[in-house]
Write a structure and sequence with these properties.
The complex is a heterotrimer. By secondary structure, chain A is mostly helical. Chain A has 11 helices and 2 strands; from the N terminus they run ααααββααααααα. The two termini of chain A are 37 Å apart. The mean pLDDT of chain A is 86. Chain C is α/β, with parallel strands linked by helices. In chain C, the strands form 2 sheets. Chain C has a 6-stranded mixed β-sheet, sandwiched between helices. Chain C is globular and about 55 Å long. The chains are: A mainly alpha, B mainly alpha, C alpha/beta.
């Protein structure tokens, strides 16, 4: 039972991470109609920045803040230099171009930080475990991730639904010409939105940095999971991304934790050991397939957001 | 209009006109290339430079994968970002059967092709219900699923992969371990694949596929049940790529999940586009160019991506016709 | 109607709060040229979309040749003999005119799971395609690519493709759209030639063409039929004059 609660929290934490990535992807897709494979690179860069700045300043929090700002700047620069030229072209161009950017960033990081990974040590006060329920202890830092992401999600919601910039974002998604006609600087708006997406990805990366090894290509696996999230949630919908991210996080974590044991109950132990991991990694894709069969536009199609 | 130029060359014209029409920069390059590929093992055997032959065996195999991808992407407009999965499925079918002691190619190959075809059928049936960017992401996601499944297969090496101790067995006289023989087998199968694609895209079936890329709505309005044609095309492409997977496993004597990591699918896509999409030979040229470039850059610098990455962006932005488009541009002057 | 080829019963389609088809009831007799007119936004194209199968109606039935086709997919309707053209030219841009039409012929020449023979050399496809181009007055442009043709020729090709599917009935969505006076009168002549063999449902803004061609006219306003009858009675109908023709005259007089 304790194990179940712990796994639940792990699932939610993975979901939060996926949401940060998926929100940026879906925002960029919904507004600029751009498929961005280099999104995982921004996640990686955020983690590298955090590890570097934390080492330089000697403060985890200061390092994280600097990393966030730096990723935002990188994202906006990337938009101005390269991404901007891809708007309005077909999706194959996006895929090719941003795939090229992904290769570029991988090598750039290797050139700057070297091929070996980095670690980001946590401040000692975050190394403790917190009692979340009577008898259930959970690492403090993982709780911090969950809470921080919830705060970001809330801020994002407020930004998109309640502010003037958010109104422009929503208007931009449905009617580019109108926003342009209102005299709004669409170019600047797009740069800001891309920067916001980059910052969200960078935030995910820097939050994750103390838990994982910071290494080249760390964004590539998680990017595909984020794609699965936005397919399930409905492309362009932030609410869909939030719900789908938690679903995917929970199911993936639970599947890996419990399915192998479950399989062993039905087949022999050795077959179960080899089948279990394979099967559990398939679950979320099966979920995606099911969503596609019954709701091809995702759970929350963007038109109804 | 480069897309349809290749079959136009064979149009009914006067003989003399035909000859000059054949002398395009593209066709000259092709002829030189084919001659080079045909003679390469001779050179390797004489000089003992087996590295070159091994490199080109790999290029021929991946070119076949790119040709199969081009069938659906270049001619059918179906941008599949999961084609490496078929390389993996073909390869793993060979590897798993070999591990279980079944080395006969007459079992291995049909099983591998069947598995690729069935996977394509399933993925195609799901993703062809959607369009555009959904299609790209779904093919990507399902390919990644296969990747993780392979990682989970502890018995077959899991993350580390699996060594294949014995190549596929045909008859006693056919020995895939002979390097030159294997090279020529790959070369012949690649040419066959190109020929099959060429016949396909010009047949009634191919007209439907090309029409669907151009204007699917009109296709339905004139009475085509488009979905089933696209699905069949998707399966043919998957099976062809599965064949490339069989060859790749036999070439490297090793399979691992890395074979089908999603960036590999990206490489295949780059090869297809780089040569010139929608021409039957384009992907072959693109594969040679891309893999040689990768190989060549690795001689000069370990940071190939610094050059390769921006180059891809430039191709996407400025040269979507690929090498073929540049050659056609030369012809127009 | 005794010999109705197309029967529409109580068709309703809503988009949000807008009623695009409001209980549309209509019969088109075999051999008739039936025109539908109405101001912009009257729901004419939505109606064609529902007849062709691209838009699913919220309620109502469509019968064609005695068969309920309400639930049939687009391609099956074409195979039954219900052809259509598009208001905005919809062609295969990288094909020649002949290849465009040959593809339409191919759609009705059995299944296309034929993988080996060069389709461009099949007389079985080319001959009927040439004939259809000829009927639409385009045979001299057979080998021109779509990109190299004028807008007027695109409209003719649009028609030729629909004809190549050998339809019993044609749904024509503004075939004159964007044509100059000469091209328009040529199109009217072409359509008059087709009238003898085909049943036609024509949507058109060019009133000269409509009154020159139509056997019957139905007037659609805000998705509702306000009048239906022969050209003379429509011309005389006060409600129509006010709702539609009058509006045009008023515009013309300003």
């Amino acid at each position: 039972m304790l194990y179940l609660i712990e796994q639940c929290l792990n699932g939610i934490q993975l979901g939060m991470l996926l949401f940060l990535l998926a929100a940026g992807l879906t925002l960029i897709f919904g507004i600029m109609d751009l498929v961005n494979l280099a999104h995982g690179s921004l996640y990686m860069i955020g983690a590298y920045f955090a590890a570097t700045f934390a080492a330089v300043t000697g403060s985890f929090v200061l390092g994280a803040i600097l990393a966030l700002v730096a990723t935002l700047v990188v994202g906006m620069a990337l938009e101005v230099i390269a991404i901007r030229r891809l708007y309005g072209r077909d999706h194959l161009d996006h895929v090719l171009g941003t795939f090229g950017l992904l290769l570029f960033f991988n090598e750039l990081v290797r050139l700057i930080w070297g091929p070996a990974g980095m670690t980001l040590p946590l401040p000692s006060e975050m190394l403790t475990a917190v009692q979340v329920l009577p008898g259930v202890y959970y690492p403090a830092y993982r709780l911090v991730i969950i809470v921080a992401t919830l705060v970001v999600a809330l801020l994002l919601y407020v930004l998109v639904m309640r502010t003037r910039v958010g109104m422009l974002i929503r208007a931009g998604a449905s009617n580019r010409e109108m926003v342009g006609a209102l005299g709004v600087n669409v170019k600047l708006l797009y740069t800001l939105v891309f920067g916001l997406g980059a910052a969200l990805a960078g935030f995910a990366g820097l939050m994750q940095a103390p838990i994982l090894t910071v290494q080249i290509g760390m964004g590539e696996n998680i990017l595909i999971l984020a794609f699965v999230v936005i397919i399930i949630g409905g492309i362009g919908s932030i609410r869909g991304a939030f719900v789908a991210a938690i679903i995917v996080g929970l199911i993936d974590t639970m599947g890996r934790a419990f399915l192998p044991d479950l399989v062993r109950q039905f087949v022999s132990y050795s077959a179960g050991s080899s089948l279990g991991p394979s099967l559990s990694s398939m679950i979320i894709y099966m979920l995606m397939a099911a969503v596609l069969v019954f709701r091809p536009e995702g759970l929350f199609p963007a038109s109804s957001k | 209009m480069h897309r349809f130029a290749l079959h136009r060359v064979w149009d009914t014209r006067g003989e003399a006109e035909k000859m000059t029409a054949l002398l395009t920069p593209r066709n000259v390059l092709l002829a030189v290339l084919l001659a080079f590929l045909a003679l390469l093992p001779v050179y390797s055997t004489l000089t003992g430079n087996y590295f070159l032959m091994s490199l080109f065996t790999r290029i021929l195999i991946l070119a076949m994968a790119a040709v199969s991808l081009n069938l659906i992407m270049g001619f059918g407009g179906m941008v599949s970002f999961g084609h490496a999965a078929y390389l993996g499925i073909g390869g793993y079918a060979v590897g798993i059967l070999a591990k279980e002691g079944i080395n006969s190619a007459f079992v291995q190959w049909p099983v591998a092709l069947l598995a690729s075809g069935l996977f394509a059928l399933g993925v195609g049936a799901l993703c062809l219900r959607t369009r555009g960017v959904y299609f790209i992401m779904i093919t990507l996601a399902f390919a990644q699923m296969v990747y993780y499944v392979a990682i989970g297969l502890d018995r077959y090496g899991g993350d580390d992969g699996l060594t294949i101790h014995k190549r596929s067995q045909f008859f006693d006289s056919v020995n895939l371990s002979n390097r030159a023989f294997f090279y020529y087998l790959c070369f012949a199968l690649l040419l066959l694949a190109v020929y099959v694609v060429w016949r396909l895209v010009n047949s009634r079936f191919g007209m439907v596929i090309q029409g669907a890329r151009s204007n699917e709505r009109r296709m339905r309005a004139i009475g085509f049940p488009v979905f089933r044609y696209k699905l069949v095309c998707f399966v043919i492409s998957g099976v062809m790529c599965g064949l490339a997977g069989i060859l790749l496993a036999n070439h490297t004597d090793f399979i691992s999940p890395a074979l089908m990591f999603w960036t590999r699918s990206g490489d295949l896509m780059v090869m297809a586009v780089l040569g010139g999409m929608g021409t039957v030979f384009g992907p072959v040229i693109g594969s040679i160019a891309f893999l040689l470039l990768e190989e060549g850059l690795s001689q000069f610098t370990e940071f190939q991506g610094i050059i390769l990455g921006p180059m891809l962006l430039a191709v996407a932005l400025y040269a979507r016709g690929g090498i073929d488009g540049i050659l056609m541009g030369l012809r127009r002057g | 109607m005794a010999d109705a080829l197309l029967t529409i019963e109580g068709l309703i389609k809503r988009f949000g709060g807008v009623v695009a088809s409001d209980n549309v009831l209509l019969d088109v007799a075999r051999g008739e040229l039936h025109a539908i007119i109405g101001p912009n936004g009257a729901g004419k194209t939505t109606l064609i979309g529902q007849l062709a199968g691209e838009i699913v109606p919220d309620a109502g039935r469509i019968h064609f040749g005695g068969r309920d086709i309400t639930a049939l997919p687009v391609h099956d309707r074409s195979l039954l003999g219900l052809g259509r053209t598009f208001q905005i030219t919809s062609l295969f841009a990288n094909f020649t005119a002949l290849e465009n039409v040959a593809l339409a012929v191919q759609a009705h020449a059995g299944h296309s799971f034929r993988f080996w023979q060069d389709a461009r050399k099949e007389a079985e496809l080319r001959e009927p395609a040439r004939a259809a181009l000829d009927r639409a007055g385009l045979s001299h442009r057979a080998d021109t690519s779509v990109a190299g043709m004028s807008h007027g020729e695109h409209r003719q090709l649009e028609l030729a493709m629909a004809l190549a599917t050998r339809p019993q009935m044609l749904l024509l969505d503004e075939p004159m759209a964007g044509l100059g006076p000469d091209e328009s009168s040529r199109m009217v002549k072409t359509l008059r030639g087709l009238k003898r063999d085909l049943t036609i449902l024509l949507i058109e803004h060019d009133m000269g063409a409509v009154f020159a061609l139509a056997d019957r006219i139905t007037v659609l306003v805000y998705g509702r039929i306000i009048a239906s009858g022969d050209p003379a009675s429509i011309r005389a109908n006060a409600e129509v004059r006010q709702a539609y023709l009058g509006e045009q005259e008023a515009v013309a007089h300003v």
